[in-house]
Amino acid sequence: MTDQIQATAIQGILQAFALKANQFLPNSRYSEVETATLQTSTNKTVIYLRRRFVPHPEKFSLLQEHTVTEGDRLDNITANYLGDPEQFWRLCDANRAMHPDELTITIGRQLRITLPEGIPGTANA
Q: InterPro entries per the record (predicted)?
């Protein structure tokens, strides 16, 4: 087997394993997003994440609401309610926001603080 054929075979094996799981942590918004490949015109294989569709807010069980006040920052709000400022994307999903900054622009806005998507809440909790 020539070096080029062997290198191509090894690359194919490595790419096959890379497609089975992405490198994102379980608490990442991308952890469940599948990977795919694209073959370029120069015969280079590019591995990429498929598009992540933002879930409908109705799929989230409401825990409580937060009223936006002057100086609120989304990372601080998220740290306060969810214990992790990097989970700000969960508030974006639950409030149908494509751009995180839009959640804190309007003073008095009610932000939904929810359970993760698909986790049912309990009545009278």
A: LysM
Q: Quickly count: other Cβ atoms within 10 Å of residue 14's Cβ.
A: 11
Phi and psi at residue 37, to the nearest 5°? -125, 155
| Whether 50 contacts 33, CB under 8 Å | yes
- For residues 66 and 95, the answer to whether their CB atoms sit within 8 Å is no
Query: Looking at residue 34, what is its pLDDT?
Result: 87
Was domain 57-114 assigned CATH 3.90.1720.10?
no
pLDDT value, residue 29: 82
pTM (2 d.p.): 0.68
* Torsion (CA) 35, 41, 43, 49 in degrees, nearest 10: -10
* Mean pLDDT on 66-73: 98
Beta strands in 1-121 (DSSP E): 35-39, 45-49, 62-67, 110-114
Bin 71: left if φ > 0, else alpha if -120 < ψ < 50, else beta. Answer: left
Find the distance separating the first CA and the last CA of the chain, reported in whole Å: 65
Contact indicator for 93, 74 with CB cutoff of 8 Å: no
* Residue 69 in this model has a pLDDT that exceeds 70: yes
